[in-house]
Amino acid sequence: MSTNFTDWTHSGWLVPHQTSRQEVGDLLAVIERDLADSQVGGLSADWRLAIAYNAALQAATVALYACGYRASREAHHFRVFQTLSLTIGSASDVIATLDHFRKKRNQGGYEVSGATSELEAEEMLALATRLAAEVCAWLDAHHPALRRSYPRRFVPRSR
């Protein structure tokens, strides 16, 4: 896997993108909403995982946008998660876990109902919550001008 933004851009995996405080604020609001919605009682584990997954995807997108890029359309989710090593310095095991949940989300959303266990939904929520907090801390340290508003803490509510 390429190790810098220039390689990724030359490969066509990323394109330049100029973000704004408004765009980042809007994405942070989506993350906050999805973290809350993934904890709503009565939803299937498949759906709860998908909602938490979207929160993680948007958190990774915020980091990528802050660095001045967006992922190309081909393998979009995969690429966004892979760039976490370049943006916030995520470890390979975190990225591998996100990729596992990407595949699980596709299975539960498109192929078969009941593919996700309650434990997996909870694990995805915990990972998305942690990633959102890490991205916000990274934004504060490296791109403070992009943090227009501070959403509530990314901490799961008790059900």
Classify the fold: give the CATH topology. Four Helix Bundle (Hemerythrin (Met), subunit A)
Regions with little confidence, pLDDT below 50 for 5+ residues: 155-159
What is the distance, rounded to the nearest whole angstrom, between the alpha carbons of the first and last residues? 40 Å
Look at the helices and sheets and give the structural class.
mainly alpha
- Architecture in CATH? Up-down Bundle
Query: According to CATH, what is the class?
Result: Mainly Alpha
Number of strands: 2
The CATH superfamily appears as Nucleotidyltransferases  domain 2
Q: Hey, roughly how much beta strand do the residues contain? A: under 5%
> How many structural domains does the protein architecture include?
1
| Helix residue percentage | 55-70%
Mean pLDDT across every amino acid position: 88
Order of helices and strands: HEHHEHHHH
SSE arrangement:
Layout: H1 5-10, E1 14-16, H2 21-37, H3 45-66, E2 69-71, H4 76-82, H5 84-87, H6 92-111, H7 118-142
Antiparallel strand pairs: 1-2
Helix pairs in contact: 2-3, 3-6, 3-7, 4-6
Overview of the structural elements:
By secondary structure, the chain is mainly α. The protein has one domain (5-146): Four Helix Bundle (Hemerythrin (Met), subunit A). 64% of the residues lie in helices and 4% in strands. The protein has a two-stranded antiparallel ribbon with strand order 1-2. The longest helix is centred in the C-terminal third of the chain and has 25 residues, at 118-142. The protein is globular, with a radius of gyration of 15 Å. It starts with a helix and ends in a 17-residue tail after the last helix. Residues 155-159 have low confidence and may be disordered.
